[in-house]
Sequence to fold (63 residues):
Amino acid sequence: MYSWLWSKLPGPTAVRILESLGLFVAIVALLFTVVFPWLEPRMPFNDVTVDTPASAAPSPSGG
Fold:
């Protein structure tokens, strides 16, 4: 895949490096601004199933 992408990028090696870095930054920005916010509510990270017994729960007075 990377060799195919490298062969499709125009220009000499220095320009290809800059273009590939630009593509990498664009993909990471797309992931962080669109994909991850869309995916986050669909992930089970906040599904807590552990309950503490009432006797083990800390008291509101902090003691």
Summary: The chain has two helices and no strands.
